[in-house]
Design brief:
- By secondary structure, the chain is of the alpha/beta class.
- The chain is about 35% helix and about 20% strand.
- The chain has helices at about 5-15, 20-30, 35-40, 50-55, 55-75, 90-100, 105-110, 120-130, 215-230, 275-280, 290-300, 300-310, 315-325, and strands at about 20, 80-85, 110-115, 135, 150-155, 160-165, 170-180, 185-190, 210, 230-240, 250, 255, 265-270, 270-275, 285-290, 335-340.
- A hairpin with a 2-residue loop joins strand 11 and strand 12 (about 255).
- It is globular, with a radius of gyration of 21 Å.
Length: about 375
Amino acid sequence: MTSELGRLIARRIALAGPISLADFMAEALGHPRLGYYRRALPVGAAGDFTTAPEISQMFGELLGAWLAERWLAMGRPAPLRLVELGPGRGTLMADALRASRGVAGFHAAIDLHLVEINPRLRALQQVALDGITPRWHERFDDVPEGPTLLLANEFFDALPVRQFERTAGGWSERMVGLAADGEALRLALAPGVTPYAALLPEAPVGARAEISESGQRLAAAIGARLGRHGGWALIVDYGRDGGLGASLQAVRSHRGADILDRPGETDLSAHVDFAALARAAGCPTFGPVGQGDFLVRLGIVERAQALKARATPAQCGTIDAALARLIAPDQMGTLFRVLAVGDSRSAVPAGFFDPSPAGPSDTP
């Protein structure tokens, strides 16, 4: 099944030839009029997926405390560019700001910037922030320079990826072309060895791999900004540390779909290569660590107990279920990972080491 955007992409391919999966993702998600992230309301029960901030207020509250601690460690700069990439409905930022309002001087220092391309989501973000007026941008590069704290929760997974397959002749890129009917989209290998082969490891015939140039460029831009002005970025997403595999997937109405089906109406995402992001950032990084370990070290179990102390039995059950979903190894606890990018001028961030007398258990 296709869509209006699918027909436009097919016309482009008919005129100019096959396109990379990265180009297809860029169109499917970011087309100025028909792209999924331009027009859809993807987050929540009525959308296509649910993110951690929508599961429980505890997630945003702990990240708000983390941000406030980093501001103190930076020496309390003012103004501070507080940036969120892909803020969804604004739930994460609203919870983070509520939890950090008791930190003297922090809110007065904040200059809030949201990188969001969807006008309907911008309106929801304004409602969620209730009296706080951020500045919105289409790209991170448009955010003014200065000391920065940045959040990116489930943002990098939606950035375009190229995909490759190892053939007897070497690595070839998987492309999006047209089926025999000249209308339906299909995947096929480009002829010959890809110029990206030097970036890919040795592997058996049939192996697949992915590279996100967009993700690495953004990580480099964030790292350069932090290096110039100081600050920290916290990246939370599902992914891996390098290695082989094809992870690109499609979701519509909380169910899996074909990645070429109904472009512009379907969410596309791929596992984040945290090792590649850390290399691209070009400055100190910590992690990645599992989301469960990170949140436990920040005190989510204690926060859950505090909430339950004032809750009804039914509410206690909801809090327990949300806690398990966020930290349990068989839910989001290990699949989702957390990476901190810093400026080398302030102390080691919380959440990446066990706070026990025995010392750290993770290597930065």
